[in-house]
Structures are given as C-alpha cells and as structure tokens.
Amino acid sequence: MSNKPCIGITLGDFNGIGPELILKSLSNELIFNYCTPVVYANTYVFKYYAELLEYPLFTFNVVHKAADIKHGVVNIRVCNTDRIEITPGSPSTEAGKFAYDSLQLAVKDIKEGIIENLLTAPIDKKSTTDAGLEFNGHTQYFASEFNSNVQMLLLADELRVAMVTGHTALSDVAQNLSIEKIVASIKSLNENLKADFGILKPKIAVLGMNPHGGDQGLMGREELDMIAPALREVEKDGIIAIGPYPPDGFFGSANSKNFDAVLGMYHDQVLT
C-alpha cells in the first residue's frame, strides 16, 4: 500500500477548460511521486478531449469503489454513466448536472476517508442552476455539506488573499458586512495561517471597503463603524491585524509583501 495521499479532482464543466487542464496535468508521470490522483468523471470525456486536442491520453484505472483505487496511475472514479453530448465552449444543463454529480461523489468520498484532499475544476453556476440544482459556489457548498464555517483563501506564490463576503453582488456587500463577520473572518484566517502554513504569529493586512479608505467618512463609514472596531476587538486576542488600508493602492504599492495574508471585504477586491 502506497503512503502517497489520494487527491480527488472534480471534472467541473465538461464543456469548459477543466477536462483539458486535467488531461494535460495528469499526463506528467511525476505526479505519481507526490500523490495518487482520483478524477471524478468518466472515461468518455477524456477520450473525447484527447482526440480533439491530439494529446496523448494518460493511463487510467476505472474505479467503481474505494478498493479499486490503484497507485501509480490516474484513477477515474465513475460518477455519471449517462450518455452525454460534449460541445466545448457552450454551456448546457447536461454539463451542469454532470459537474454537480462529480462534486457530490467527491464530497461523499472525503466524508468516508477515501480521498484526503480535493481539487475542483471550474463549474458554470448558470448551467447548474438551469439544471434545477442549488449551487452558489464551491465554498458555500462545502460549508453546507460539512456543516462548518469555511473561508475562501487563494494563493499566488507568496501572496495569500481572503475575503469577508464571498459570492455576493457588489450592491449587497455593505449590508452583508458587520463587526462580527469581520472579526470572525480575521480569526479564521489567523488560525488557517497557523494550521496550514505553519506561521506561528501571522501578520494580516485588512483592507477598507471604500475608495481611499472612506476618506474619514466622506466616502462611506464602513471603515470607521465596522472595520476599525473589528481590528480593536481581535487585538485583544493578540492577533496582529493591521488596517484598514485604502484598497485602491494597496497591491500596487507591493505592501502585501509585508504581510502573511490580506483580508479584503469583497470578492473582486482581492481577486482582480
């Protein structure tokens, strides 16, 4: 039995970029030095894209139950046996349902200890919604399935960013902010940095919400009424969280390099 971790990979939208990324990434056999990949899909999808892209198909093992998983090859965990029509670049309810089925089975296997971590390929939310499924993003889905508070954390080299509000319309951000939510987000990020990155005393930058940090209330009072009080609150617990920094010039100034992570107030503030 190999001691390499089993890493699950969901297919995502089969009309999107997911299958191509998975096909090309797992064709590099160096991956087996680090993990045993388990892809939640079916063989037809990868045979189709290998032919379309004129790219060699990796060696695979078809998995119907945990005992079928083999090390040293790509395991395809069959999650949907329906006949499908693949139309690259075109969304469809069929693709939305398949993507959801892939994610559902992967989460089931996490709960049963079959896989240890999960990498998710992109899903088209409109396709899943049109298929009659409730899906507002992976983060919210995991929170519901595991009945837990979760935090979206994204990495790029040494840059780590998180946000207080997730997939929320920009027009609704202000009403979805509160001192309590900001405090909870800072504490969660602080614990994640300790547990997942081994940072003993994390240093977190906290961004404001408004242009120029609100200009002392002239362009909004969220910095004064919510963010600053939240920072004072977490300081009582010894958490190093500094701000609120004006968001418009923060990343351009390279100030992020002085921190272990950056917490923004909303999605596009830290993901652009």
Describe the structure.
- With 272 residues, the protein is an alpha/beta fold.
- It folds into two domains: 6-145, 3-Layer(aba) Sandwich (Isopropylmalate Dehydrogenase); 153-271, 3-Layer(aba) Sandwich (Isopropylmalate Dehydrogenase), CATH 3.40.718.
- The chain contains nine helices and ten strands.
Give the structure's gist in a few sentences:
The protein is of the alpha/beta class and about 270 residues long. Helices cover about 35% and strands about 20% of the residues.
The percent of residues in helical segments reads 25-40%
The name of the CATH superfamily of the largest domain reads Isopropylmalate Dehydrogenase
CATH class of the largest domain: Alpha Beta
Strand order in space, largest sheet: 3-4-2-1-5
Q: Total strand count, please?
A: 10
- Overall mean pLDDT: 92
